[in-house]
Amino acid sequence: MKTIIHIIRKEFLQFKRDPKMFGIILIAPIIQLIFLGYAATLDLNTVHTIFYDQDKTTTSRNFIEEFKSSGFFQIDHYADNYEDVQTYIEKGKSLVAIVIPKDFEKKINRRETAQLQAIFNGSDGNSASIAAGYIAAITTTFSKQIVKDFIDVSGRKISTVGKISAEARVWYNPELKTRNFMVPAIVGLLVSIVTLILTSLAVVKEKEIGTLEQLIVTPIKPLQLIIGKLVPFLILGFVSVTIVIVAMNIIFGIHVRGSVVFLFFSSFLYILSTLGLGLFVSTVSKTQQQAMMIAIFAVMMPMIYLSGFAFPVENMPTIIQYISYAIPLKYFITIIRGVILKGNGFVQHWFDATMLLAMGILILFFSALRFRKRLE
Amino acid sequence: MNSIEVKNLTKKFGDFVSVDNISFNVKQAEIFGFLGANGAGKSTTIRMLCGILEPTFGDAVVGGCSVAKNPDSVKQNIGYMSQRFSLYNDLAVGENLDFFGGVYGLSNQKLNERKKWVLKIANLEGKENLLTGSLPGGIKQRLALGAAVIHQPDIVFLDEPTSGVDPISRRNFWELINELSSEGTTVFVTTHYLEEAEFCNNIILIDAGRLIAEGNPKQLKTDYLKNSIYEIESDRVIEALELLEKQNFVVETSIFGNNIHISVEEKFNDLSRINKLCEEGGITIKRINKIVPTLEDVFIHLLGNEKIL
């Protein structure tokens, strides 16, 4: 026990001597949080639009007015010809071009179906499909208005056709902001970086400079060495979780609805896995550069993509969904989102927590075994 | 009394035999030189003696503990200093000593006492707050040795401790080794500098994992080298070497700076013949004399023969 404390104390003295490390641990979480909170947004608030109004009638102008007043569309230009339309879309100035054909008003008055052309810049598929949704909504409203007007004008007493109106209520994230979805997950991302990458670096560093050789000939037992090396990073992991939770509240006003204790407990369970993975990376790398590369490209990136951090796992092909069951970050992010946004606790997440515990113990056990073998 | 007793120690990595059935004893408080070319199996042997690597066959008793049966107890009784500087550069001198002292389980009082001693031998008294990485090479070396023996082990293993250190620091370092030995610590040292090997009480030489010579430096020079050695200084070293190599009275030749050492059959003593030969070849000989062989002559002789075999 005393030996372990000596190692932990040494580890913290080394942190103190390495201000860059401090930067990574204290400043990086906040910078990441701000970047991802503001930049990683899939929301579409402004649709850059051009109109090519071939009809130039009261109806077409009213139709355009609907777009203006919706608040989502910004009309960059009124085109006179198709070349104009093409230029704007090609240069990426506008996301969508709406073409109103010549007989727009005429057809409506003749109670025929009027056509409308919408041309999208599909290179950003996500924005294009959201914009298409907005356009469809506005068009539907406009059509209904035409029917209503006709009924009013004709003076016939026709009861409006029965219809279903869905009143959507969004729970947990009423404004449907991407930020509320992304920011809590950053807790998971940062904990991974701090514990996984820094652990592997710290172990490989000792290997690289030769101090590990010195430690092996001392009476330190491999298990003591492993614990002594890992505990400081567990503590740092907790520090960065705390920083992110506080910063999240101050900067974005997102607060933890559920139990903070359960959040920290799950962090602990998750960190078991990342420390194990960090230790594993250190056993397969000879230099710090190697460790860094392996940790980022072979471990972190796949873990992030398959965890549901940015892309929902449910939308992935079945086989990839199966693979994602082996990704500890997936469970952790589920828990984080659940606890922070929904106010969930152990009752809802016992399965995720159990999976984290099981995977943590498994990964840590095999990494420690491998590390021990490598020492000899 | 023997500090280390090695018996039939063998280590195989797959089919490769790194250490091949070697046996030797190291007496308490002696300075024991362990020599051999790179890849001869020195590091593997040291690792086994330190209890880090399990022998494939055979055993060694180090400080009373068997490395095969009880490797963990071996570790408490030994100190180890590797050729790479292996203290933490980003810790202060005092912090390094606190750490290693702590790991060996020294009490606070004992630790303070030993720290003072280490600081004294490393000329770092009052400078324990200096960052270890900022120290000059010679001082670092002494500090590393001090840290390796902070727990006053019976035996200390030094693996090429003076590689890359300037000559004056090397001399100081050896004074320190002598001091340790006179205080009763057994010093087991490997080196590539053969003039350092002369300071050892006893030496063994290994090649390709096998022990090929042992004894004190004097014995090695007389027991293993029956031939006489002549040192020849000439203006054209290479030509002289090529010429003499061909003579049948010459057993071995080697270059030592501007000089050639030739080893000749014991009964040969006709110096004029060498002079004459060289003159005919157009080589001027400035000086020629019979010398006491150096360890280097002995090892070139021994290792050269091995290679021919």
Count of separate structural domains of chain A: 2
Strand content of chain B: 25-35%
The CATH topology of the largest domain in chain B is what? Answer: Rossmann fold
What general outline of chain B do the C-alpha atoms trace? globular
User: Mind describing the biggest β-sheet of chain B?
Assistant: 6 strands, mixed
What Rg of chain B, in angstroms, do the CA atoms define? Answer: 23 Å
Give the strand order of the largest sheet of chain B, numbering strands 1, 2, ... along the chain. Answer: 6-7-8-3-9-10
How do the helices and strands follow one another from N- to C-terminus of chain B? EEEHEEHEHHHEHEHEEHEHEEHEH
Give the end-to-end Cα distance of chain A, rounded to a whole number of Å: 23 Å
* SSE pattern of chain A, N- to C-terminal: HHEHEHEHEHHHHHHHHH
User: What would you report as the Rg of chain A, rounded to the nearest angstrom?
Assistant: 29 Å
Shape of chain A: elongated
Q: Kindly provide the name of the CATH class of the largest domain in chain B.
A: Alpha Beta
Biggest sheet: strand arrangement of chain A: 2-1-3-4
Class derived from helix and strand content of chain B:
alpha/beta
Number of domains of chain B: 2
Strand proportion of chain A: 5-15%
Number of strands of chain B: 14
Considering residues with a beta carbon less than 8 A from a beta carbon on another chain, report the largest interface and each chain's count: A-B, 24 and 27 residues
Residues in helix, % of chain A = 55-70%
Instruction: Estimate the helix proportion of chain B, in percent.
Output: 25-40%
